[in-house]
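Continuing the series of single-chain predictions for the mutant panel. This is the parent chain; the variants come on the following pages.
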Amino acid sequence: MAAAAPATLHELFARSAARHPDRTALEVDGRTFSYAELDRLSDRLAGRILRRAGRRPARVGLLAVRSLTAYAGYLAALQLGAAAVPINPAHPPARQLAIVKDCTPDLVIGASSGTRNGTQARPDLGVPWLLVDEVSLTEPADGTGAAKGDDGEDRPGEKVAAPPRPDDIAYILYTSGSTGAPRGVPVRHANIVPFIDWAVDACGFGPQDRTSQNVEFSFDVAVYEMFVTWAAGGALVVPRANDVLRPSRFVNEHRITHWFCVPSLGSLAERTGALAPGSMPTLTKVMLGGERLTAEQARQWAEAAPNAALHNMYGPTEVSVVCVHKDLGSVGRLVPAGSNGTMPIGEVLPHLESVVLGEDGQPAPTGELCLRGPQRFAGYLDPAHNEGRFLRRRPGAAALALPAGETPRDTDWYRTGDLVRAEGDGLVFLGRLDDQVKVRGHRIEVGEVEAQLACHPAVREAVVVAHHAGAEATLVAHYTGTLTPPAELTGFLRERLPRYMLPSRFLHRESFPLNTNGKTDRRSLPAPAPGQTPH
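Parent structure:
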């Protein structure tokens, strides 16, 4: 009888470790680890976690950069049936402390030495620490079968496990909340595994694939990069920070086949000459997501990776990384852009349900995307954050907000807060509902203005921000590319947009600031100074 399909993230890794023990699982900090070696190291670290916590932990914090400690720690937490809670070391201590107070992990893992950053600072988070010395973690056992660890002797050969169940929480990630407090998103194995299974099959992953693991663990794409690779028996290759900004060199040196990044990061690479046509022939899969993808950005990637299929991927953390997908084709055969000048995000994954709701709560061609199905999470860690995020619908009736304090049902719809439009090649992403502004009484979606401005041949990227002076709001367009007279840009947009949607100022910039996830940091764009000349 055939073995049951893996139902948890750890089972996906364990299956590949059993099938391909000698294949490379991880390349990090100049070292290579096979599946058998990484499995053994996560066993060792799981034992240390148990001894430090004194019991099977429910949640394990990971305050570590992309290092052996972090990867082994992630697998060890899953192996023990605990939820992994990534905490970005680059985030301010106040945010780190807010996360720890919210999810109360049993302990936090950090690296004491042997990583690219050396010894890690240990902020006072109010919970026990397990500082991992990577030298001792990787040293071979002595003749007695024991290796000296950070907190005593390891016990190699002893499989430490409390296997997770599908309904157990696999990881908790934190997204920005409208109140300023981070919101904990608990994702269960039963939510994320269907997506990983779909991605391996639909995108053709296999043991031959080598994935560049580009994002920090606090970003949900890291879960995708790790486990789609390990589920397929491939190799995860960890770049250093600057490698991502010059992708062609890293991709070619390490024979990378699978690459994910946000479009704005690709645009930055293009400006430095690191995205030249034909520069990355080893790539077979290029995944873009997290932001609107312009037709020009898609063309640049397709030309730089002529042997790759280009994929546009969309999804909130609450619906397990990706829930809408479009195979855009390849160089010379890309699908056309949507009516707003951006590439379509495509179709909802086949095991999910979606509905687009207009302002009246009824299905409409353009409106808010709402989703349900196995990938949808069960609600925020703090139930107070559920208010306004779920809808309940009856056939023929308008959708109603979930009553305050009520737990979401499996049949309830998650409100993404994203505006989409159904078009010929699938859904087109228009922007965030909370990006809508009113200017002189007109409701405006700034994403539409950005997309049209980005169609100008002199404009590489555009970000439109509403600035308020008293009760009056004005639109300011920030753009990169070639410095262009404002009158020319205004005339270009006047042919495409109503007058009330035209920006009042155009500010040229060499580049846009990026946040820690590589996305354009809109909040860091300064307002125009009084009397500043538009250019």
